[in-house]
Amino acid sequence: MSKTESAAWHKDIAHVVHPYSNLDAHATRGPTVITRGEGCYVYDEHGKRYLEGMSGLWCASLGFSEQRLVDAAVKQLHTLPYYHLFNHRSHPPGIALAEALTAVAPEGLNHVLFANSGSEANDAAVKLVWYYNNLLGRPEKKKIISRLYGYHGVTVASGSLTGLVHVHRDFDLPLPSVRHTDCPSHYHFGLPGESEAAFTQRITDNLEQLILKEGPETVAAFIAEPVNGSGGVIVPPAGYFERVQAILKKHDILFIVDEVITGFGRTGRMFGSETYGLKPDMMTVAKGLSGAYQPISGLLLTDAIHDALKAGSRKHGAFAHGLTYAAHPVAAAVALETLNVYRDRDIVGHVREVAPYFLEKLDALAGHPLVGQVRGVGLLAAVEIVADKAARKPFDPSAGMGAWIQNRAMAYGVIVRAIANCVALCPPLISERSHIDELVGGLARALDDALAHARENKWL
Ligand code: PMP
């Protein structure tokens, strides 16, 4: 048995179905088995250390060994390991978390419906939008508009909202009531010679045209991440959301803001909504809500929407929606403690301090022959990989360049993520400058190797 081919490695291949992995290749390639974590680092089963430059899946914001979160979980497990919120029951961690979360949330979001994942929270948003409009007596107002390269999850409704072909293809998605509009990336979708302002005007005009074509009386909601994450870390152009929100208001369309990645300090403010001046009617949160130490998510609602739900109960009786483990007391206790840690350590202030250094270091890679663009905000960034800088042309997908760079960076002890034609970075919010140096340094070495690899293969 070689070093990679441990007993765990074989058992994994035999039994585990891996999300977002090439299941065919996995049979021979096998897994990287991660066994423990410490600070911003994780270790594999052979003891190799990696700087987790993606915070796992954009989520482990406080790193991998925060004792306060462990203690909160253990204490709650000893006190009340499980209870629920159905049928007028409640429990202290659920109540305290709802209070703390709505206190830090953008103004007006005073109510929260808990779930376990980002997908479930976005699914609930879709259901509540439909329910809301039924209760308002406008059953035809049901369509939801999301954006190409937006990511909102993989369940039937949230997967439909996600604007990525591979999430739909052969899964019989999207749902018929979902429409997709432009991705706000000037770099990728700007016309030759088109200014960023003209691009913003054009794509927001397209949004309004879509609404008018469908009939505003049939369009219920628009959903967006403040910064597209899994679609390639797309930072919106100036004025984009201002124009989008004016259009939504004009046509009486609800704005659902997906803060699953951007929530809790990632962009240098508590929420991306603050960074970009958004006024959500509904907002979804997950990931950083618990620093990823427990699965928990939430759908935050305004008084107006909550009032409609109450009206629904006057009509139908009990609100017929809920998940067994939503607001699980252990997850809620950990999330509450996570919010306390953010506050006590001024994590948002720390992000604002370290982010300029992070972005400056990454910007230094912009001159690299394989780097088409460096973009980011706060501690969220991407480096666009190109075969031709001037033409903004990516490598042929068959070259597998993104995965190659990702694997090379891993060999150097740094975890980044290849998505679309870019390499994404989303380091823990507790990262210090030394971590940033190590992360960007590892990526730079991987890029240099990738350049040599591309030249050897005559791809350049
Ligand atoms: N929304 C966004 C913005 C996300 O990034 C993700 C996950 N990457 C989701 C929703 C879905 O969350 P989950 O994987 O917890 O279902």
TrEMBL record:
Which cofactors does this gene product need?
Answer: pyridoxal 5'-phosphate
Q: Known EC number(s)?
A: 2.6.1.96
The GO biological-process annotations, alphabetized, read as:
biotin biosynthetic process; gamma-aminobutyric acid metabolic process
Q: What class of enzyme is it?
A: transferase
Q: Which UniProt keywords apply?
A: Aminotransferase, Pyridoxal phosphate, Transferase
Q: Which GO terms describe its molecular function?
A: 4-aminobutyrate:pyruvate transaminase activity; adenosylmethionine-8-amino-7-oxononanoate transaminase activity; pyridoxal phosphate binding
Q: Which Gene3D superfamilies match?
A: Aspartate Aminotransferase, domain 1 (3.90.1150.10), Type I PLP-dependent aspartate aminotransferase-like (Major domain) (3.40.640.10)
Does the keyword section mention Transferase? yes
Instruction: Please give the superkingdom of this protein's source.
Output: Bacteria
What family does the Swiss-Prot or TrEMBL record give for this protein? Answer: Belongs to the class-III pyridoxal-phosphate-dependent aminotransferase family.
* UniProt xrefs under NCBIfam families: PRK06105.1, PRK07480.1
Name listed for the protein in its UniProt record: 4-aminobutyrate--pyruvate transaminase
